[in-house]
Each structure stands twice: as structure tokens, then as C-alpha cells.
């Protein structure tokens, strides 16, 4: 079931000074796999305990299946994953996830992101955090958004009761 109004136009491209954000597609799989596996330890610290991701033995084929599923979910308007790329789109810098709340609470959407490990000290993570907050407030139809990993820790978010279904 779609969690957005049928007439809402999902953003397709957002450009910043240091990055471009657009919906992820299967054509991004090599960039995604590189970003995930080169940042695996950092991503596991961020998501692993709650989400079990990314597995240490993640394969390119499994990554392709994940990205294809994410692309299909966007087509069905169920959830959205955006690639955060360099301005020339040559390199994946991270991802942004926008979806229905996975756990109980007042939020209409959960929004999360990650930045590859090589960008950890570049200030990009703070820049993306600020961008995402403004973006979901101005470009999306939600009144109440939860940013797990940013507003609350992933561990705290993981302890919220799951929604049925």
C-alpha cells in the first residue's frame, strides 16, 4: 500500500554544491556495492544491531537484488531510496531512505541516511543531515518525521514496538 497521497510528485533530482540526490536504480549497483563494502564496519556500527545490515559476506548479486527491490518499492510508492552521489555521479557518497514508519509512534515517516566511511571527517554527514531535515520539511507531505540514527539512536528506535503488518 502506498503511504503517500496519489497526487504527490516524488522528488527526482536534488543538487547541492557537493552532491546530487536522485532515486536509486539498478544501474547504481556497482557504486552502491563499493560504498557499502568499503564502509561496512561503519555501517554495521550504525545499522547492524537493529537491521543486521550490511552482512560481512554481502555479494554483488545480493546487492543487486536489494537495489532492484528498492527501485520496485519506489515504483509502487511504498518507500524510497535515494542515491547520494558526487556532482558528476561517478561515486556513491551514501543513501537516504524515506519510508512509512516501521515502529510505533506519532511519525508519518521514517527518514534515515548514511554516508560512506571515506567521508566521515569531511563534514558531509552534517551537511546531509541538515539537508535531509529541510528537504523532508519542504518537499515531502509529512507533518511528523522521525529520523532514527539522528534524532534518536538506532538502538532506541529498535526498541519501539513494531507496527502490525
Briefly characterize the structure.
By secondary structure, this protein is of the alpha+beta class. Helix content is 35%, strand content 18%. The chain has helices at 29-38, 40-51, 60-75, 124-138, 154-158; strands spanning 14-15, 20-23, 80-85, 92-99, 109-115, 145-146.
List keywords for this structure.
165 residues; alpha+beta; 6-stranded mixed beta sheet; 35% helix; 18% strand
Question: Helix proportion of residues, in percent?
Answer: 25-40%
Overall geometry: globular
Biggest sheet strand order reads 1-2-3-4-5-6
Radius of gyration in whole Å, from Cα? Answer: 15 Å
User: What would the average pLDDT be, to the nearest integer?
Assistant: 86
Q: Structural class of the helices, strands and pairings?
A: alpha+beta
Report strand %.
Answer: 15-25%
> Number of helix segments?
5
Count every beta strand, where a strand is a DSSP E run of 2 or more residues. Answer: 6
Low-confidence stretches: none
First-last Cα distance: 11 Å
The biggest beta sheet reads: 6 strands, mixed
Q: How do the SSEs run, as a string of H and E?
A: EEHHHEEEHEH
Could you characterize the architecture of this molecule?
The chain has 5 helices and 6 strands. It is of the alpha+beta class and about 160 residues long. A 6-stranded mixed β-sheet has the order 1-2-3-4-5-6, with helices on both faces. Strand 1 and strand 2 (about 20-25) form a beta hairpin. Helix 1 packs across helix 3 (about 60-75).
